[in-house]
Amino acid sequence: VNCQQVGPQLADYTAGFLGSEERARLEAHVGECADCAQHLAELRALDGLMASDRVSASQALVARVMRHVRPAAARPRHAWVYMLDGLGPFVAAVVLVPVCALLLVSLLPSGATSQATVDSLLQQPMTLGAAVFGLGVVAGGMLWLSKSVGEALA
Amino acid sequence: MMLALMMPAPSYPIAEDRGEHALVARARSGDHQAFECLVQAQKDSVLNVARRIVGDLDAAQDVAQETFIKAYRELRRFGGRSSFATWVYGIAVNEARMYLRSQRRRQARWQKQASWEAQGSQERTDESSEAIVALLQELPEKHRVAVALFYLEELSLAEIAQAAGAPEGTVKAWLSRGREQLRQLARERGLL
Q: How far is B99 from chain A (nearest CA, A)?
């Protein structure tokens, strides 16, 4: 057995991958060869270096994982979160009433009476439908936004 | 976040259910505390594997977080043929590889941008990397994965192969070459 044969086997030796026969042959050579003994010492020093280079995960990591794992309903909620959730319809109403009024006014022929407005709207069902659909989308969006913000802050 | 940080670490209330398989079964049936126990048991090892593969502690934290979230989502697919730990290490290796691929794509984009941006990112990487972890980044990715799993010091060759997603013989060769390359690099940089 010579250094060219033993050298590539030293990593396997320190990893415990060699059989008893190969191990005995290698140990006999290393006992007589200063270069291979140095090579082996370096591999063991490397193992020590790697073993000492360990970091510990913080509880914050566990907390972040569990926040994703637990369903939203199981998370602790506080009164202000419920209040934020409840604000959705209120904010939607505050925004929607003026928007509705503006839309209606914009559809009115100038100087028209309220009866004329109703007649005008009924004669344009597509416009009326689009306006109602748009208002529905805005209202839904605002409700979703307030709920999402509430959940994100919970 | 603050509330979660202030919460105490979970206790391990049912002594007879501490076994990994029992915890996995409980977690599968929706017991979040059982899953938290599994996370507590593996968090350090998963973080260390991730850090040694991606080379940066902040990125490794993200990889570890994604690993456990994915493990929870795919818990029903865990067949029990390996230990839960080996299965989770496999997920961590895949997540770390995905992170490295996205990093490479990002770096390719950065190289097209102004040179000062590229220099800035390099400085941040150098500062944040510790010596031995920085050396690991010089190994080919597959060698690095094998070495990272080997130095957990708790896996057999068969388990390392399973987590790395390659045959035992191949992983054994990666390990031998990887550790030898690492020794030579460490000697050149005066770490040995």
A: 18
